[in-house]
Here is the input.
Amino acid sequence: MLSHGNKSDFYSADEKKSLTETKNKYYLELLNNITPKDILPGVLDLIEQANNNHIPCAIASASENAPTILEKLGIKHYFKAIVDPKTLKKGKPDPEIFLRAAEFIHIPPHLCIGFEDSIAGIQSIKQAGMYAIGVTADGPLPEADLAVHSLTEIDIHSLF
Here is the structure.
């Protein structure tokens, strides 16, 4: 964030650490208030459709808080696997996280569909050999195979 705002050299290492700790404190406080009402439109419908059609799902999130978030949203049980980002050697756009997710659910990567909202995430999915759906809330994702503004625009049957 500091680099993005051209402020990386503005703070000392100790100040950066303190800012990070403060940001994480606020983030964890926000996590405590998450409820199933916070599920984004279309997400629950899509994962329920996948579950009803015996399509295994996995989470390939760089966030170490993904299990907590899924639990608070009440949807953790829909996922056969959650990749632990601490076990990865490289981050996105490297495909490792998506390849690991496919491995955990025993599906060849070329038969998987990945959902992402970032350019690095889409690149990661594509490098893994998967079909990439970009959720374009913050801008275009030109490398995505399919771009949607919301998951309400698709259903499981339109993907196969």
